[in-house]
Design goal:
The protein is mainly beta. It is 8% helix and 65% strand.
Length: 339
């Protein structure tokens, strides 16, 4: 009796997979995702620090914290999860191949940190270049500092997929991919410092300096996908993509001092080099109909050797750091329509 049940169950499974094996000329996929940025090991740059505290300030009962600081890691951790979306069109003229174009975008996510220590705060290395004079009015021994850091990215892909073992034709499927991707990463950072003047500390001056970075990534990419079909109307998809290519980065900034009255000329620095990226998607696919599927899963984006705002020196006009790392991950859901 058990063998008969197993036999009929096998017939049902194979019949269901045969139904899903019909060729579809066109598929449209629309995804939404909620992603959070993670700090990498090199996100340790100090932007604001308490470097002028005196020995008497460290005595018992003092409100001064000698290790008070704002680092790039603090700002990344303060960034909330944010929404994004992607849309793809896939054309298939044979059950063993498909051509895909995809667009994706993540909304801007902003992290903000502030410190208040009377006459103790110091913006990191503002006097090591000509951008800020040695007699800085507001960035040395400031009483209040705030740093804002925002980041977003968007991109597009054009891929060709080959399937030695086509999806839905068996209990498993394998595929490979070759294609091209273009990504753009936009970031901005602003440092604001306020300084109290005079014995009564009634006169306060405030200055803000800002910078913006843009990264363009042009990368050929390869990938693979594995489908598992444990149930007739349920599939598991594991997909990965990696690419290495050309990167073009640019930073622009403005430095203001003395209650924003002393303003340096805006500057712009650009450069290029090699970059890399990787994507990983473990997903579960539910098939309520032959023309409709629902996806739910996880996704990860990683970019290496790109121009990021938190890796730049705010008060330097020259030099461009292109060794930044960007890591975003989160949950996703989407729908597919087959025509």
């Amino acid at each position: 009796m058990d063998l008969i049940k197993i036999f009929f169950l096998g017939v049902v499974v194979w019949t269901s997979h045969a139904l899903w094996a019909k060729e579809d000329w066109c598929a449209v996929e629309i995804d939404g995702f909620l992603m959070k940025r993670l700090a990498c090991v090199d996100h340790r740059q100090l932007l604001i620090k308490d470097s002028h505290y005196a020995v008497e300030d460290q005595k018992e009962g003092s409100n001064v914290e000698p290790d008070a600081r704002i680092s790039s890691k603090d700002l990344i951790r303060a960034m909330p999860s944010n929404f994004g979306f992607s849309a793809a069109l896939r054309l298939s003229f044979h059950h063993q191949s498909a051509f895909e174009v995809r667009y994706m975008q993540l909304r801007e996510s902003e992290g903000k940190e502030s410190l208040f220590l009377p006459r103790q705060l110091f913006a990191d290395k503002p006097y090591s270049s000509s951008a800020t004079p040695q007699n800085s009015q507001d960035y040395q021994r400031a009483s209040f500092s705030e740093v804002q850091y925002a980041s977003r990215f968007l991109g597009g892909e054009a891929n060709y997929w080959g399937y030695p073992y086509p999806p839905f034709a068996d209990l498993y499927a394998l595929g490979w991919m070759i294609g091209f991707s273009l990504f753009k990463i936009d970031e901005r950072m602003e440092i604001t410092c306020a300084k109290e003047h005079g014995q009564e500390k009634v006169h306060v001056t405030t200055s803000s300096s800002s910078l913006r970075t843009n990264s363009y990534l042009f990368t050929p990419q390869i990938g693979c996908v594995v489908y598992l079909h444990p149930l007739p109307y349920l599939s598991i998809r594991l997909m990965a993509k990696v690419g290495v290519g050309y990167h073009r980065g640019c930073r622009e900034g403005e430095v203001r001092d003395n209650n924003n009255e002393d303003c340096e000329d805006p500057y712009s620095v650009s450069g290029s080099g090699f970059c890399g990226h990787a994507q990983f998607y473990p997903q579960m696919i539910i098939h309520p109909s032959v023309h409709f599927s629902w996806l739910i899963g996880y996704q990860l984006f990683y970019f290496d050797h790109v121009t990021l705002a938190d890796q730049q020196q705010m008060f330097k006009k020259d030099g461009l750091d292109q060794k930044g790392r960007l890591l975003n991950h989160g949950v996703m859901t989407g729908i597919q329509f087959f025509f």
